[in-house]
Amino acid sequence: MEALIEFIQIDSSATEALVAISTETFTETFAPTNSAGSMAQYVANNLTATKLSKELDCRDSAFYLVKVNSEVAGYLKLNFNEAQSDVKDANAVEIERIYLKRAFQGQKLGLFLINKAIEIAKLEGKRYVWLGVWEHNHKAISFYQKIGFVQFDSHEFKLGDEIQLDLMMKLELKEA
């Protein structure tokens, strides 16, 4: 039986679901390679219901859940215009967060989410999408490079008390 994949835009009524998936996927992704203190501090400061509800209410951001057979598998956050964290280019869309639960990795859902982001960016008339990825997340960097993203800059990312480096990568969109 083929899996049923759903891509659902959410608003602040889904805050608790977003807190749960954000905390689970961020922890699964980064806890093995970062200190417990920095992880706990980041989650406590950035993945709370109050903070995420405010992000959900931002008119220049959009959150989407991906569900597989009705189970939340991951999520995507896009930023437009002034909501972008660094570039703030009206011709771009930032993929600020793209996370999947470990159990759903390797099933082409990451590519599904990237393609949805590209589709949305094209519908909005944007010229490129961009994102930041931790310099030590080699699996993600390789994935992005394989689909055409190229590094164009870097920026600092604060995880707890640690300052880390994110590579900024972008993908130029082809005209449809």
Describe this structure in words.
- Strands 1-2-3-4-5-7-6 form a seven-stranded mixed beta sheet, sandwiched between helices.
- The longest helix is centred in the N-terminal third of the chain and has 16 residues, at 15-30.
- It has helices at residues 15-30, 36-46, 49-57, 109-123, 138-146, and strands at residues 5-10, 61-68, 71-80, 92-100, 128-134, 150-159, 162-172.
- Helix 4 links the parallel strand 4 (92-100) and strand 5 (128-134).
- The chain has one domain (5-172): Aminopeptidase (3-Layer(aba) Sandwich).
- The mean pLDDT is 95.
- With 176 residues, it is an alpha+beta fold.
Concise synopsis of the structure shown:
This protein has 176 residues and is of the alpha+beta class. It has one domain (5-172): Gcn5-related N-acetyltransferase (GNAT) (Aminopeptidase), CATH 3.40.630.30.
- Placed side by side, the strands forming the largest sheet appear as 1-2-3-4-5-7-6
State the shape.
globular
Mean pLDDT over the full residue set: 95
Q: What kind of sheet is the major sheet?
A: 7 strands, mixed
CATH superfamily: Gcn5-related N-acetyltransferase (GNAT)
The CATH architecture name reads 3-Layer(aba) Sandwich
Q: Residue share in helices?
A: 25-40%
CATH top-level class: Alpha Beta
Structural class: alpha+beta
CATH fold title: Aminopeptidase
The termini sit apart by 33 Å
